[in-house]
């Protein structure tokens, strides 16, 4: 079977360093090691083509890394279109929103196998009608941060060296340096320590990640394995984080343009 194909469309005013890494990963246990099994894409399944749209204002620093796990080409839970060029497989169109910052050596892994079933069914070959946004706008992924998710909302700040596996991240959060959270392998929001906030009840996962500050506190130097993951509210988190990310973009976009080779901007062909 042919490997899945990735087509990247870079909109004007998006800055993507040539030495950044954007690629497809077909290893099935990256996000869900507990479900390790033979590859979900059997030898009889046709390959999927993923079209990734990088909207204007995004900034990919050198050595930043964005990894996509493709959906199954014959899975009814994914949105696919059959076109003349993809007779042997599906086409999935995903988008990164505006004004995100991907800094050096960050690693963002997005699992597209769980794309929402409510995505509109294509009635024509109009790709814009089936675009799914997988990262929204005004997020900062700091150096050496590592985030594994299926969808990332707006105006989140991921500080250096944080390591997160969270199925869905909403809006306006700050994830502190060296924070380590894995939701989905037995851990839930109830394993966190809440400060000045109502603790969630019967939490189903990560639905509470909305305008929060999360950080890790080591309890004792003699017991380095005893950590506390602390959560507190982040009042007006979206507005405050958008302001921070906007300042970072203004200060660094010109530097990356001036000092690094860039991927060429691309514009979708307009049919006559």
Summarize the structure.
Helix content is 8%, strand content 31%. It has 272 residues and is mainly β.
Chain-wise SSE layout:
Layout (H helix, E strand, L loop, with lengths): L4 E6 L4 E2 L4 E4 L24 E6 L4 E2 L4 E5 L21 E6 L4 E2 L4 E5 L20 E4 L4 E2 L4 E4 L1 E2 L4 E2 L4 E3 L2 E2 L4 E2 L4 E3 L10 E2 L17 E9 L2 E11 L3 H23 L13
Parallel strand pairs: 1-4, 2-5, 3-6, 4-7, 5-8, 6-9, 7-10, 8-11, 9-12, 11-14, 12-15, 13-16, 14-17, 15-18, 17-20, 19-21
Antiparallel strand pairs: 20-21
Proportion of residues in helical segments: under 10%
Shape: globular
Q: What is the average of the pLDDT values?
A: 78
Largest sheet features: 9 strands, mixed
**Number of helical regions:** 1
The rounded Rg comes to: 19 Å
Which regions are unreliable across 5 or more consecutive residues at pLDDT < 50? Answer: 31-43, 75-87, 116-124, 201-206
Proportion of strand residues: 25-35%
List the strand order in the largest sheet: 2-5-8-11-14-17-20-21-19
Task: Measure the end-to-end span.
Answer: 35 Å
């Amino acid at each position: 079977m042919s490997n899945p194909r990735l087509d990247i469309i870079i909109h004007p005013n998006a800055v993507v360093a040539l030495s950044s890494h954007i690629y497809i990963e077909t290893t099935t246990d990256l996000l869900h090691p507990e479900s390790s099994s033979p590859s979900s894409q059997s030898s009889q399944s046709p390959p999927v083509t993923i079209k990734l749209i990088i909207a204007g204002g995004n900034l990919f620093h050198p050595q930043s890394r964005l990894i996509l796990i493709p959906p199954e080409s014959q899975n009814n839970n994914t949105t696919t279109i059959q076109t003349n060029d993809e007779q042997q497989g599906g086409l999935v169109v995903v988008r990164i929103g505006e004004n995100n910052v991907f800094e050096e050596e960050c690693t963002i892994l997005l699992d597209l196998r769980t794309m929402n079933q409510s995505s509109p069914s294509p009635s024509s070959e109009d790709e814009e009608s089936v675009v799914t946004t997988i990262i929204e706008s005004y997020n900062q992924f700091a150096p050496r941060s590592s985030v594994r998710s299926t969808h990332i909302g707006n105006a989140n700040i991921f500080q250096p060296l944080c390591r997160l596996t969270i199925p869905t991240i909403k809006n306006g959060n700050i994830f502190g340096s060296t924070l380590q959270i894995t939701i989905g392998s037995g851990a839930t929001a109830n394993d966190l320590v809440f400060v000045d906030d109502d603790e969630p009840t019967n939490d189903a996962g990560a639905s509470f990640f909305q305008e929060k500050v999360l950080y890790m506190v080591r309890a004792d130097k003699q017991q380095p394995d005893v950590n506390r993951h602390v959560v507190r509210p982040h009042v007006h988190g979206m507005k405050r984080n958008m302001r921070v990310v906007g300042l970072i973009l203004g200060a660094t976009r010109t530097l990356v343009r001036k000092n690094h080779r860039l991927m060429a901007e691309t514009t979708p062909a307009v049919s006559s």
